[in-house]
Amino acid sequence: MLTIISKSTPRVDFNAKNRMLIIKGQSYPENSFKFYDPISQWLDMLFTTVEDDDGLIKLEISLPYINTSSTKCILMLLEKFEVAEKNGRNMDVTWYYDKENENELECAQDFKEFVELEFNLIAV
Amino acid sequence: MTSDNRSDIFQADYKVLDAAEKVLQGLEGSDNAIRPQFEEIYLGYKRLLRQSSHLIIIADRQQKRLIDLQNDIVEKNRELEALSITDGMTGIANRRRFDEVLTQEHAWHARSGAKLSLILLDVDHFKAFNDNYGHVQGDECLRQIARVIADCTSRPADLAARYGGEEFACILPETDNNGAIAIAEKIRCGIIALALPHKCSSVADVVTVSLGVVTVRCTTGASAVDIIIQVDELLYQAKSSGRNRVEFVKSCCGAGTSSGVV
Predict the structure, then answer these.
(1) pTM of the complete model beyond 0.80
(2) What is the ipTM of this complex?
(3) Which one of A76, A79, A114 has the shortest CB-CB distance to B58?
C-alpha cells in the first residue's frame, strides 16, 4: 500500500491487495504528469496482474478543485478504467462530492459526460 | 465529440486527421507494409484529439465556475464592505466610517489649507423619550433624525454619521464657519419640523437637538481628535445653556462662544 500526501495534490491511496485506488483532495501540482504517472503505472500493473475472478477493482475519487493538467491526467486514468471495463473487468467507481459545493458536482458530471464508464455520484 | 470544437479551435487538428484518413483510404486494399502502422498512428492521434477536446471543455467549464465564484465573492465583499461602514439602524454612515473619513479629510485639508467644519449633535432628553415612548419609538425617532441630517448634508463630500447612541456628526469639507452654522441651523429646524411629540422634554413639546459647530484650518501637527475635542466642548455648551441650539466659536473674539439659537 502506498500513500502520497501534499498540499497541492490529492491524497492517493493505492492498495494492490484490495485492488483499490483512492484519489481525494484538491489537485493543482506544478507537474501533474510527474504526480500522476506513478499512479498510471500502478494501474497498468494492476490491470495486467489481477485475474478476472479476483473480484472488483475499486476506484474512489473526490476532487474539490482540479487544474487543467490534472484534468488531463484524471481523464487518462479514467480511460484506463474504461478500457479495462470493456475488456471484461468488474469495476466499481464512486465519485464523492461535497453537497455544499455545487462546482464539485458539476465537475464530476463533466467527467461523466466524456468518459464511457459507469460511476456513482455520491454527496457527502 | 462536440461539433463546436470541430468547427473552431480544433479545426486545424481535424484537417490533419482528415488528411490522414484520406491517405489511409488510398492505402485501402493495397499491400503497402506501412498501412497497419499508419492506421495505428491515425487511431492514436484520433483518440488523443478526442481526449484533448474533452479536456478543453471540462477545463473551460471549470474555469468558468471559478470565475463566476470569484465574481460572487467580489460582489459579496462589496456588500460586506458597505455593511461594515453603515449604521444598521439608521442607514447612514457609522462611527467606523466617520473616523475613517475624518482622518482622510483632516490629512487632505492639512495639505490644501482649506477650512474643514464639523457638526456634532445630540438629541435633547433622549433617555426620557425612550423611557416614555419605548425603544421602538426611540429607534424610529433616530431614523427620522438621521434622514434629516443626511438630507441637509447632501453635497458629494459631506458625510453624515451616527456617532454614538443618540449622537450624530457631520463632516463638511471645504466649508467655512458660516456655511457650517447654516447647515446646523437647517438640521435643527428640520428636526423640529418633524414634529415628533416629546412631552418629557424641558425644551419643547417636540423632539429637538443641540449642536456644536467647529471650523478649523487643519495643521499637520494637530490630530483629527483635537477637532472632536473642540466640537464636543461646544456641544456640551449648547446642552448646558438650554439645549435646542447651535453653539459655535465666535469668529470676532476667538475663544468666546455664543448661542446661535434662532
Answers:
(1) no
(2) 0.87
(3) A114
